[in-house]
Amino acid sequence: MGGAKLESVIQDQVQELLEQVVAPNEGKPLCIDHNLRIAIANVIWGMVSSQKFAVTDTRALEVMRPFDEMSQFIWVFIILTICPALARLPSWLNGLKKVYKIFNAPIDTLIQPAIDSHEETVDLRGEPRDYIDCMLQERSRNPQLFTNRHMIRSILDLFVAGHDTTSVTLGWAFIYLCKDLEVQRKLREEITNIVGKERSPALSDRPRMPYTEAFIMETQRMANIAPTGLEHVTREEIQLGGYTIPRGAQIISLLMAVHMDEKHFPEPEAFRPERFLDDQGRVKPNRALIPFSVGKRSCLGEALARAELFLFLTGLLQRYSLRFVDGFDHDLSCIQTKAIVREPTSYEVVLERS
Predict the structure, then answer these.
(1) Which end of the chain is less congested by CB atoms within 10 angstroms, N or C?
(2) Interatomic CA distance for residues 206 and 54, integer angstroms
(3) Which residue ranges does UniProt annotate as crossing the membrane (predicted)?
């Protein structure tokens, strides 16, 4: 997840975002969210297929469109779960066909063609070029376990787990930078001192940039983009807090409760990156910071997400300062229709070269 090849994929998207989206809009109000989502989707697609899309090319983003539209159809699945016999009625059947068509569209137009192309060129015993190559090599060894359906579902999982989470975290980061210009000044000063302006930031710079790391950590704590994490299931009966939780129970953790607990983070409502720095200005980890959950079932994409957050954030701030449009201040409100991810309501920023 954190290899040099993947770093170059991320850096390519950062540069395209800066040159094709930000530069033409310098000094103007810009809603950067859409193009940021495309850039993050393109990073995932580059890891999956080795194909490079421009930051204005929406093909990789189309994979996520069915999941964004799922809220329109969720009632269909709820009702059919209660009364599955309805699925045989013509009106319900037509509705289901519409849902399936929406979900299959990115598979038919993007994912399956990429798999087909790889099948013609993959070296089953050589160095894999990307995720699809890895899956095809595994399929050659275990054809019953690694089927085409399994491959498609795994690719979709990568998009669902790694797309919204990273782009939304960056969206919150920009809000906090605009709300606290002194924090932004310190962060940009560190970038200038360590990286300079002649080259792009690299992951190798990260150990020497403690304030940047602390800012990202504080953003993750305050944003709580996945406040409940994902559901887990108990493999055996357990005792917890005086309660008996049976085997097979669905467990939902409340990560946000930990992040906003005064015992772990004094004045939790205050945005203060310094809480993750010691007296010498070095990064001070806190075990209570768990944006990727904990344990063996924690997020597999943590290294990828950390790399993206660092490179997109530093790449942007190396060239530009950010501020809200005159007269606007974000109230930290969220889009209410999102089921799992806490996404901020829409806003515009003004980026000025410095």
Answers:
(1) C
(2) 26
(3) 73-93
